[in-house]
Amino acid sequence: MLAMSQATRQLALTPPSGGPGGPHTMPCDGGGSMVITMGPFSPPQDNVFRTSSRIEFRDCRNQTVTINGDPYLETSGEFVMPALGGTESTSTSRMTGGMRFDNGGVQGRVRFDCTIVSRMRLVPGAPPEVSTTATGTTTFEQPLGSTPVVRPCGPA
């Protein structure tokens, strides 16, 4: 999770070197790199905005952990704005893919198949009503070959 957070932070702080969508190669704090590709972006249609990105980890090191893509993480998002006069918007984010990691000589992997949907409804004279649901699973296997642990996506 720390490496994914680092990738997001670096992308926000680093000017694009590979054009607007990338690929952007960024160093990891302890060595190795991440390759981030944004898009393709579709033009907004009917108040709907769509995004996508892909992160490949290449011997990305942070403290005692080395991360590689299995083969990569892919995210997509959709934001539905309220129509003129409408009061409700919806944001959907989906993450799939996986990573392999080595933590102090113990190898493992994690696979994501998660969707998070947030809805916001504006109510006159009251705070916005916000609801979030998470579906899907995150599968951990450490050490490799052990029985995988499957957890639901979202807050624990």
Which key features would you list for this structure?
ten-stranded antiparallel β-sheet, 156 residues, mainly beta, 10 strands
Explain how this protein is built.
With 156 residues, the chain is mainly beta. It has one domain. The chain is 8% helix and 60% strand. The protein has 1 helix and 10 strands. Strands 1, 2, 3, 4, 5, 6, 7, 8, 9 and 10 form a 10-stranded antiparallel β-sheet that branches. The two termini are 14 Å apart.
Task: Describe the secondary structure blueprint for this structure.
Blueprint: H1 2-13, E1 24-27, E2 33-38, E3 42-45, E4 48-58, E5 60-62, E6 65-80, E7 88-103, E8 106-121, E9 129-141, E10 149-152
Brief digest:
It is globular and about 55 Å long.
Instruction: Write down the domain tally.
Output: 1
- The number of helical segments is 1
Q: List how many beta strands DSSP finds.
A: 10
Helical content band: under 10%
Low-confidence stretches: none
Order of helices and strands: HEEEEEEEEEE
| Gyration radius over CA | 18 Å
> Span from first to last CA?
14 Å
Main beta sheet: 10 strands, antiparallel
Average pLDDT confidence is: 86
What structural class do the secondary elements suggest? mainly beta
Tell me, briefly, the overall form.
globular
Strand content: over 45%
